[in-house]
Specification:
Blueprint: H1 15-24, H2 27-34, H3 38-52, E1 57-59, E2 64-66, H4 68-96, E3 100-106, H5 110-125, E4 129-135, H6 142-145, E5 149-153, E6 162-165, E7 170-176, H7 178-181, E8 200-201, E9 211-215, E10 218-222, E11 229-230, H8 233-241, E12 247-250, H9 251-259, E13 264-266, E14 273-274, E15 277-281, H10 289-302
Parallel strand pairs: 3-4, 3-5, 8-11
Antiparallel strand pairs: 1-2, 5-15, 6-15, 7-12, 7-13, 7-14, 9-10
Helix pairs in contact: 1-2, 1-3, 1-4, 2-3
Amino acid sequence: MKQNFTVRQGALDGVEVFLSVAQHRSFRRAAAKLGVTPSAVSQTVRALEARIGAALFMRTTRSVGLTEAGERFLSCAKPAFEELVAASEVARGLGQRPAGLLRLSVPRAVVPLLLEPLIASFCQAYPEVEVEIAASKELIDLAAEGFDAGIRLGQFVDADMVAVPLTPPLRLIVVGSPTYFAGRSRPTHTDDLRQHACLRWRRSSGALALWSFNDNGQAIEIAVSGPLIANDFSTMLGAAVEGMGLAQVPEPMATEGLKAERLVHVLQPYAPVIPGVFLYYPSRRQMMPKLRAFVDHIRLRSRPEDTRR
């Protein structure tokens, strides 16, 4: 059963004034230190005492002393207030300059292709920022999991996110190894995939991804079959290099294998264009300087030709 709960208002009101009076043993000197009138200090202390339900000071015309309740309150309130001030200073520092821990949720395949050179130059430019990369195939809730930003293919970024392009639009290509094609004919039309072993990708939702193609300007999707199901492009690509079958992957991932002739590109006329890879985050209004610096660093180094937003 849900219980009623009321947030206490003004629990800290008057604490700083109390600590100043306790330190100086004078309402007048505390007022001068705080830049207010002695009357304002006196009224604030009275309100604090009324809220606590105990007198905190013994006042005479010549001096101000602490009651037993005041001594007890001082022993607890002083270190707690100092910790609050220190915490405020730390938070203020993180809000004013690029510093602290920048947490990024990133697909494993993106790390060597895009992030390694980018992170190295960013860390050199902003030594007060620590970068944590969590390689994962899952599309996580950034705020709930404590991440500053994520990186994903554009079609998987929610429309309510701010998205910064890391690459121009890119193609999805079908590749296989020379070993796989030994004794097999290469597909020349998407219908030929029925006679081929196709390596499939299971989305984080649990659904098997269809293969996408562009047939004379018309987008089509095909259900394929094969000996392996993986949950990331890197595993599929590795299996394709080993000759297990054909894989459909973002073109930049296969570039090295194609140049080294470990992979062969097929069905080139049917390769669809997808939005590319994006850095995404929830809101510009909540952006900390560390993330703003990272976004600016990306834009300075990447300068892609196309933007989605």
